[in-house]
Amino acid sequence: MALFDMRDRLIVGLDLPTIEAADDMVDTLGDTVTFYKVGLQLTFAGGIDFARRLLDRGKKVFLDVKLLDIDNTVEHAVENIAKLGMTFCTIHAYPKAMRAAVAGKGTSDLRLLAVTVLTSMDEADLAAAGYAGTIGELVSRRAADARAAGMDGIVCSPSEAAAMRAVVGAGMAIVTPGIRPGGTPVGDQKRIATPTAAIRAGADHLVIGRPILEAADPKAAAHAIQKEIARALST
Fold first, then answer.
1. 206 marked as part of a ligand binding site
2. DSSP states of 135-180 as a string?
3. How confident is the model over 97-132, as pLDDT tens digits?
4. Is 196 annotated as a binding-site member?
5. For 132, which DSSP code?
6. Cα gap 179→174, rounded to integer Å
7. What mean pLDDT comes out for the span 182-197?
8. Nearest-angstrom CA–CA distance, 73 and 92
9. What is residue 34's three-state secondary structure?
10. Is 41 annotated as a binding residue?
11. What pTM was estimated for this model as a whole?
């Protein structure tokens, strides 16, 4: 389980179009938020240098690039990512890719997360992509593969979190996107839960973007979510 202090339970997804917008959001959130996700949108807008600046400010960074390529490419990409000082990096949960990533990580402190099934997918999407069986079955199989490959954690929806704890054990982190506080728009997410439900299901970290980024007062929204997480842990 990858916990550092209580505030690290919340990872704010900086899914914003520009580095300037991301910088402004980090300034707005101030000391309330300690952990940020830099995803594909921001990565291709200069996000790696931005992530380095976050690290210099004492923040933790989740690099969400969902690597999937031939083994050699994944291994050497992760070797380079491991030198950057990020806390988390995502790999699609294909066994060969995960094994290559673990080899590339070596003895570094980088924590590798296996992406099981995206939270924007439902059973119909899975069938359209050619997969047989249910989402729960696929997530379980990929979580087991992640554990066998030596990954540090998995990314799954809060709907699967409770069941996946039995699959991955106590030592691996469960990170859940698709979190929507009560009364906030669902957007393109399909397998969602409130912060309370996700924590009670066994999630270690909650990745939350739009409910904070689009709030009238992002800092107050982040603080309210952290308070909700604390209450869920205490009951």
1. no
2. HHHHHHHHHHHHHHHT-SEEE--HHHHHHHHHHH-TTSEEEE--B-
3. 999 999 999 999 999 999 999 888 888 999 999 998
4. no
5. -
6. 13
7. 69
8. 14
9. coil
10. no
11. 0.93
How far apart, in whole angstroms, are the C-alpha atoms of residue 68 and residue 50?
23
Residue whose structure tokens are 């309370």: 196
Is 204 known to sit in a ligand binding site? no
Return the SS3 of 108: coil
Average pLDDT, the chain: 92
The stretch 67-87 carries a mean pLDDT of 98
Alpha helices in the chain (DSSP H): 19-29, 40-42, 48-56, 71-82, 95-105, 123-128, 135-149, 158-168, 195-200, 210-213, 218-234
Nearest to 18 by CA among 46, 39, 40, 54: 46
Is 69 annotated to bind a ligand? Reply is yes
Could you read off the pLDDT of 132-180 as tens digits, one per residue?
Answer: 899 999 999 999 999 999 999 999 998 899 999 999 999 999 999 988 8
Residues with catalytic annotation?
64, 66, 69
Which domains are assigned to the chain? Answer: 6-234 (3.20.20.70)
Distance from C-alpha of 130 to C-alpha of 13, rounded to nearest angstrom: 30
Do residues 179 and 138 make contact, with C-beta atoms less than 8 angstroms apart? Answer: no
